[in-house]
Specification:
Elements (H helix, E strand, L loop, with lengths): L3 H9 L6 E5 L3 H16 L3 H4 E5 L5 H9 L8 E6 L6 H12 L6 E7 L7 H9 L1 E4 L5 H14 L6 H11 L3 H15 L9 H7 L3 H14 L3 H13 L4 H23 L4 H8 L3 H11 L4 H20 L4 H13 L1
Parallel strand pairs: 1-4, 1-5, 2-3, 3-4
Helix pairs in contact: 5-6, 7-8, 7-9, 11-12, 11-13, 12-17, 13-15, 13-16, 16-17
Length: 332
């Protein structure tokens, strides 16, 4: 199996292979490398030589015919076949037979699938007959680093903590993150200081309720009762669902509990970061927060979270009162 870094190396050398297969859930990166390959292979003819078809709409014979026939204005062709996993067994066989033969130097075929079954014979055969690359969603530290690099490319700066806040609000989709960064970059255009700060993210990015949920969990982790109650009441006024608030709090304390367990095992911060796939800056902030509670306090805490969630979801009690009681408990 090839790698994304391997694709970059080939592109620097202008080395384009006759057939690729891109699998995985990260559509943004797949689209990016399709454009890079098409640009390198077609040059100025990219507008006429790039075509996209779908395995759910065309059979292998039609796909191969299109790949081999050049347009009026195109000397070369890049044919992208999306949803290749939707091909019928017969079409899969025809496609593999085609890939096993010598390919035309004027054609580049890129097969793409969101989730091709890794246990299937088709998956294994494509690995053998194409430059096969898996595009999995970026995790934790890699995601923070991507945001920081993309911000730099836009002529701005961002530190790890705001980058993580942006991910918390927007989610892990690179496409959505890029949209938010473009918005933030435009907002800072012309300013002397082009650094993206938390206040800019809270003002412009995503859903403001997500910001509140992130801040509430952080305040509870620090046992800051005054700030926790203020954030809770603010979120209630904006119509935030208490069950959704509870989900964010639960996630935060699960992370802190894992950090505490690893500290007890004597793991170094570097080893903890690798196991948890968490950015070093976020881990640095989590370690003192994790140590604020004893093991017994964590057990009581999780029992309180479980009880509150059960009552909220079953309608047993006033949501506002239940959440206030929980906040007092977690902040004590």
């Amino acid at each position: 199996m090839a790698t994304i870094s391997g694709l970059d190396t080939d592109l620097l050398k202008s080395k384009i292979h006759p057939a690729y297969c891109f699998v995985g859930e990260e559509e943004y990166l797949k689209s990016l490398y399709i454009r890079k390959i098409a640009g390198a292979f077609l040059g100025a003819g990219v507008d006429h030589g790039l075509e996209v078809v779908y395995g759910s709409e065309a059979d292998a014979k039609e796909i191969i015919d299109r790949a081999q026939s050049l347009g009026i204005f195109a000397e070369k062709r890049v044919l992208v076949v999306k949803d290749v996993d939707a091909l019928s067994p017969k079409s899969r066989k025809i496609m593999l037979e085609h890939l096993g033969r010598e390919q035309s130097p004027d054609t580049c075929l890129i097969l793409s699938s969101f989730k091709l079954d890794a246990k299937s014979a088709f998956y294994r055969d494509l690995q053998e007959n194409t430059v096969f690359v898996s595009f999995d969603p970026l995790k934790s530290e890699s995601l923070v680093n991507w945001v920081m690099q993309k911000t730099k490319e836009l002529g701005c700066k961002i530190s790890p903590a705001p980058a993580q806040l942006l991910i918390q609000i927007t989610g892990p989709s690179l496409g959505l993150l890029e949209q938010e960064l473009l918005k933030l970059s435009a907002y800072l255009e012309g300013g002397a200081d082009r650094e993206i700060r938390p206040e800019h993210i809270k003002l412009l990015a995503g859903d403001t309720s997500e910001v509140g949920g992130f801040e509430l969990a952080e305040a509870l982790a620090k046992k800051d009762l005054k700030q926790s109650l203020a954030l809770f009441n603010k979120m209630l006024r904006t119509g935030e669902d208490p069950v959704k608030m509870l989900s964010g709090i639960n996630h935060k304390f699960n992370t802190l509990w894992r950090v505490k367990l690893m500290l007890a095992q004597g793991l170094s911060p570097e080893a903890m970061g690798r196991k948890m796939r968490i950015h070093p800056y976020a881990l640095k902030m989590a370690i003192p927060a994790a140590q604020k509670r004893t093991e017994r306090e964590y057990w009581d805490l999780f029992n309180g979270l479980f009880t509150a969630e059960l009552k909220l979801k079953s309608g047993s009690g006033d949501p506002r009162t239940l959440m206030q009681q929980l906040i007092f408990k977690l902040s004590s």
